[in-house]
Amino acid sequence: xxxxxxxxxxxxxxxxxxxxxxxxxxxxxxxxxxxxxxxxxxxxxxxxxxxxxxxxxxxxxxxxxxxxxxxxxxxxxxxxxxxxxxxxxxxxxxxxxxxxxxxxxxxxxxxxxxxxxxxxxxxxxxxxxxxxxxxxxxxxxxxxxxxxxxxxxxxxxxxxxxxxxxxxxxxxxxxxxxxxxxxxxxxxxxxxxxxxxxxxxxxxxxxxxxxxxxxxxxxxxxxxxxxxxxxxxxxxxxxxxxxxxxxxxxxxxxxxxxxxx
Length: 261
Description:
Elements: H1 6-15, H2 35-42, E1 47-51, H3 52-64, E2 76-81, E3 95-98, E4 103-105, E5 113-114, H4 120-124, E6 128-134, E7 138-143, E8 153-155, H5 156-173, H6 176-186, E9 199-202, E10 207-214, E11 217-221, E12 223-224, E13 229-232, E14 244-249
Antiparallel strand pairs: 1-6, 2-5, 2-7, 3-4, 3-6, 8-14, 9-13, 10-11, 10-14, 12-13
């Protein structure tokens, strides 16, 4: 059964959250202020932003549920251009934590991902993560990858932990009545563990297929959105956290699949 993941999907879409370096920083990050970048960011009217406290809830969820992916060194967050974004939305994209006194540049990888440092000052100032682009062009996604997962594979426990991070952030942004409604529909406050729950998981490259490898079983998973997403059975307790999902990309015949996010 595919639970109507509608309430959660609607929440996450409205929240613009959805997809691996060194260990998570335990102390406030210190970075030299980039004056030109700061001026550019501040000059954008109605910029894309996200509350630091909201995003930090994802860090807390990663720590709390780390047993789902014990070899994952960190959670990375990723800015993904939405359907309404211009073709060059990722070009010259910049991000920083900005508060009354806080100014911390957050370097972006080529894929738009970044690590979020712990910062007591940013938390106390209720700072924001601010881009130099206009609001409504991006989605914010967590991305978790355990060490040793082969290329072209995703680990189910990683996706379960991604869900915990995603939902922790969403719960910070939505009204109490919505949280209550979703909890009632799913019959649990732990939305990610709802029985038979399947979560749409984004793929950076179009997929031909996604197959759950459970012992001798090969279980085809539903691929959606023209190959850009597959449904992972994160709520099905029959499958252990170490269960792998094999991804076959549409371009495989012409070359090797891209690295897993």
